[in-house]
Design brief:
- Its main location: membrane.
- The protein is mainly alpha-helical.
- The protein has a single domain, classed as ABC transporter involved in vitamin B12 uptake, BtuC, CATH 1.10.3470.
- Helix content is 76%, strand content 0%.
- Helix 4 packs parallel to helix 6 and helix 12 packs across helix 13.
- The two termini are 18 Å apart.
- The model has no long low-confidence stretch (mean pLDDT 81).
Length: 332
C-alpha cells in the first residue's frame, strides 16, 4: 500500500512538473547559443519590434530546431517505452533491435551512392527503419513471435546492417565526411523544411500511441492472460512493434542516429511510477522531449565554437546514467 501511495505522488509530481520543464527548457534553448539573447529580445521579436538579426536567430534558426528536438525526443522515448513493454525487456529500444540501423543504412546509401537525391534523405531513412522492423518480425516468426526471438533477430540484423554500412563507407571513403555528422545524431542545420516533413508522421505516431495504451497494459499480464481476455496477442504485438518503428523512423529521418533516449527515459520513469502505460507513455514522451532539447542546447553551447552532435553527448551521459540505474535499483 505504501508503495502504491508513493507512486501516485510521484505521478502527480511528474505530471505537474513536465509542462514547466518544457517551457523552461525551450526558453533556455532560445536564449543561449553563439549569440545570447535576453527575455526582452524575445519579447520584442514576439511584438514585432525586435531587431532583424534577433528575429532571424529565433524564428529561422532556433525555434524550428527546438520544435524538432521536442518531437524527436517524444518519438524516441515512446518508441522505447512500447518496445520495452512488448518485449518485457528494459533493455529494448529502437537501437537495440536494429530499427535505427535500418534507417541509418538507407540514409548512408542516399548520401554516399545517390548524392544527387539528397533531398530524399528523410524519406529514405524513414523507409529503412520501417522495412527493417518488418524484416525482424518476419525472421522471428515461428508459430508466433516471442519477445526473445525478436530481440535476437534484431541484434543479428543490427550487426549485419552495421557491417554493410561500414563497408559502404570504406568503398566511398571520399564522401564519408558528409555522412559522419548524420550518423552521430544531431539537429544542426535543421529548419522549417525538416519540421514540415517530420511533424505529420510524428504527430500521427504519437496520437496512435495513445490508442496503444490498453493493449500494451494487457500484454504486461502475459500472453496467456491476454488471450483469456480476448486479445489477439500476436496481432497486438505486431501492431505495437510497427508503431514503435514508425515513431523511430520519424525521428531518425531528420535527427540521425540519436541513442539512449528510448532506453533511459522510459526505464527511469518506470522505476519511479511503475508499469501502467496510462502514465508511463505520456510522461516518457514529455520527458524525452525535454531531454533532447536540453542536451542539444548544451551540445551547441558548451563546446563553442565547435558544435558537438547531440547524439555524442547523450551517449556519453546516457551510458553512465543507465549503468547507475542498474547498480542502484536493478532491472525492475
Amino acid at each position: 500500500m505504501m508503495d502504491i501511495t508513493l507512486r501516485k505522488k510521484r505521478r502527480r509530481w511528474l505530471i505537474c512538473l513536465s509542462p514547466v520543464l518544457i517551457i523552461l527548457v525551450s526558453i533556455f534553448a532560445i536564449t543561449y547559443g553563439s549569440v545570447s539573447l535576453g527575455i526582452s529580445d524575445i519579447w520584442n521579436v514576439i511584438n514585432g519590434k525586435g531587431e532583424i538579426i534577433h528575429e532571424t536567430i529565433i524564428v529561422d534558426l532556433r525555434l524550428p530546431r527546438i520544435l524538432i528536438g521536442l518531437l524527436v525526443g517524444a518519438c524516441l522515448a515512446v518508441s522505447g517505452s512500447l518496445l520495452q513493454g512488448v518485449m518485457k525487456n528494459p533493455l529494448a529500444d529502437p537501437g537495440i533491435i536494429g530499427v535505427t540501423a535500418g534507417g541509418g543504412l538507407m540514409a548512408s546509401i542516399t548520401m554516399l551512392m545517390l548524392p544527387h537525391l539528397s533531398y530524399l534523405l528523410p524519406i529514405s531513412a524513414f523507409i529503412g527503419a520501417f522495412v527493417t522492423a518488418i524484416i525482424i518480425y518476419v525472421l522471428a516468426w515461428d508459430k508466433g513471435a516471442s519477445p526473445l526471438k525478436i530481440i535476437l533477430a534484431g541484434v543479428a540484423i543490427n550487426a549485419l546492417l552495421g557491417a554493410m554500412q561500414n563497408g559502404m563507407m570504406i568503398l566511398y571513403s571520399d564522401r564519408v565526411q558528409s555522412v559522419l555528422p548524420w550518423l552521430s545524431g544531431g539537429l544542426n542545420g535543421r529548419s522549417w523544411f525538416h519540421l514540415e516533413f517530420m511533424a505529420p508522421y510524428a504527430l500521427i505516431g504519437l496520437i496512435l500511441s495513445l490508442l496503444a495504451i490498453r493493449p500494451a497494459n494487457l500484454l504486461l499480464l502475459g500472453d496467456d492472460s491476454a488471450k483469456l481476455l480476448g486479445e489477439k496477442v500476436e496481432w497486438q504485438r505486431f501492431l505495437l512493434i510497427t508503431l514503435a518503428a514508425f515513431l523511430a523512423g520519424a525521428a531518425v529521418s531528420v535527427a540521425g542516429l540519436i541513442g539512449f533516449v528510448g532506453l533511459v527515459v522510459p526505464h527511469a520513469i518506470r522505476l519511479m511510477i511503475g508499469e501502467d502505460y496510462r502514465f508511463l507513455l505520456p510522461l516518457s514522451a514529455l520527458y524525452g522531449a525535454c531531454l533532447v532539447v536540453f542536451a542539444d542546447t548544451i551540445a551547441r553551447t558548451w563546446f563553442d565554437p565547435v558544435e558537438l552532435p547531440v547524439g555524442i553527448l547523450l551517449a556519453a551521459v546516457g551510458a553512465p546514467f543507465f549503468l547507475y540505474l542498474l547498480k542502484k535499483r536493478g532491472m525492475q
